[in-house]
Design a protein that fits this description.
Blueprint lengths: L4 E2 L3 H22 L4 E6 L4 H16 L3 E6 L6 H13 L5 E4 L9 H4 L14 H8 L8 H12 L8 E5 L6 H10 L3 E5 L6 H6 L3 E4 L17 E4 L3 E2 L5 E2 L4 H4 L5 E2 L6 H23 L2
Parallel strand pairs: 1-11, 2-3, 2-4, 5-6, 5-7, 7-8, 8-11
Antiparallel strand pairs: 9-10
Helix pairs in contact: 1-10, 2-10, 6-7, 6-10
Length: 288
């Protein structure tokens, strides 16, 4: 039995923020344009408020302006769509994010279609997802991209490796499968109807847990020496977060495990800022 090394995200997130800041400073210096990200919120959920504050703090470090548009928690879908369309048409806005959860009756997949693809820095618009699946240029959902970025940062090879992705959402599971395929990994996507989940995940070199179920993945789900990325962010009774992986159970079985918090999360936030800086640079280039 060997020690499980942590796949911490702080160093990679810092490097991504530095890249974003370099782009942002160049745009301000050469064109008088500061990248601007706008987060649209229509909920009073406290965990969402915490996340938005963390994005704002990180944006300041990266030299990116970050504004929050707050709509009522009972806002009609039409009102949310109109606000997204307005922001998409604003030349002073370079990135738009629609934060969940949304009011009852509002569909994130439907409303994200109102975000212009060139400002869709979290890859939520179905057009962005379609381009990603087709191998065309598009911003990938930041959480999915963060998994690959974190593995790269820790020197985990993907070519020829077997990867089990547990979860099939359009936020993580499905786009991540495409990103991994583009890196020549062999990918299996598991879900709630997968028969004998443990048998599938035990055959993988790398397991990504993104099902939204606390403690779902245990040592019984892993081959000795597997690399595990925990995307789960499940609230605990004491106000903290826990992942989809039972960290205590897999310790010593997994070769490496990303912590929650402190693993995928910081990289996700940093990628949103990098995407915004890149979107701003493309917008400036397009108008030259």
């Amino acid at each position: 039995m060997t020690d499980t090394r942590p796949l911490a995200g702080a160093e990679r997130a810092g490097a991504l923020r530095d890249e974003a800041r370099e782009i942002a400073e160049g745009l301000v210096r050469e064109h008088g344009v500061q990248p601007r990200l706008v987060v649209v919120v229509a909920t009073e959920d406290e965990s969402t408020a915490w996340y938005v504050r963390s994005i704002t703090r990180a944006a300041v470090k990266a030299g990116i302006a970050c504004d929050t548009v707050r709509l009522p928690a009972d806002a009609e879908p039409a009102a949310i769509r109109a606000r997204l369309a307005e922001l998409s048409a604003d030349p002073g806005v370079h990135g738009v994010i629609l934060q969940t959860p949304l009011p009852p009756g509002a569909s994130a997949a439907d409303l994200a279609g109102a975000i212009a693809p060139d400002k869709d820095v979290d890859g939520a618009n179905p057009l962005s997802l379609g381009r990603l699946a087709a191998g065309l240029p598009a911003f990938a959902p930041a959480t999915a991209e963060a998994v690959v970025s974190l593995l790269d940062a820790h020197g985990v090879a993907l070519t020829g490796r077997g990867v089990a992705v547990v979860g099939r959402s359009t936020v993580v599971g499905k786009p991540l499968a495409h990103l991994l395929l583009d890196r020549d990994a062999t990918v299996t996507v598991c879900h709630s109807r997968t028969a004998d989940l443990a048998a599938v995940t035990r055959s993988a070199d790398i397991v990504v847990a993104a099902a939204g179920r606390a403690g779902l993945i245990t040592a019984a789900h892993l081959a000795p020496g597997a690399v595990v990325v925990d995307v789960g962010t499940n609230p605990t009774d004491d106000g903290g977060l826990t992942g989809d992986v039972d960290a205590e159970s897999v310790s010593g079985t997994a070769a490496a495990l990303s912590p929650v918090p402190g693993g995928v999360g910081p990289v996700t936030t940093a990628l949103l800022l990098q995407h915004t800086a890149l979107a701003a640079r493309r917008a400036v280039t397009a108008h030259q």
